[in-house]
Each structure stands twice: as C-alpha cells, then as structure tokens.
Design a protein that fits this description.
Elements (H helix, E strand, L loop, with lengths): L1 H15 L6 H27 L4 H22 L6
Helix pairs in contact: 1-2, 2-3
Length: 81
Amino acid sequence: AIPFGLVATLNKRAEKEGKPVSTALQMSLLNCCVTVGQQICTLSLAFIMGRTSMREALPRALMLAGVAQVMAGGGGPLLPD
C-alpha cells in the first residue's frame, strides 16, 4: 500500500505545482519499490551463505526479513502525508 500511496502523493504534489503527471514515472517508481526488497533479500542471503551453509543461512535470512518487516510496519505510519 505504501508504494501506491507514494505515487498518489507525488501525483497530488505535481498537480498542485502545475506540473504534468507522468504515468511512466509512476510505473517506474512502483517497480523500484517492489523490486528493491527482493534485491536486498537476495544479496543478504548470498552474503550469509558465503559464511555459513544453506541450512543455517535460510533461517537467518528469514529472521532478517522479519526484522525488516517490523521496522517497515512501525515506520510506515510515521511517514508524513
């Protein structure tokens, strides 16, 4: 929901400033928001697997993802409108 809220906020801001609203920019922002988490997860797992076995790396990556979700869930409501 946050990426869509970000796009909506940018649209409103662009309309208030009299700038044209770019659909291509909206789609690229949504794509970045969706794929950044996947990229971070993949790189984190690769880094952890460089030091441990797959059996140990997957639970650690899952714990790291859980911490990130808690931080995002707690930080999301704190974002200004």
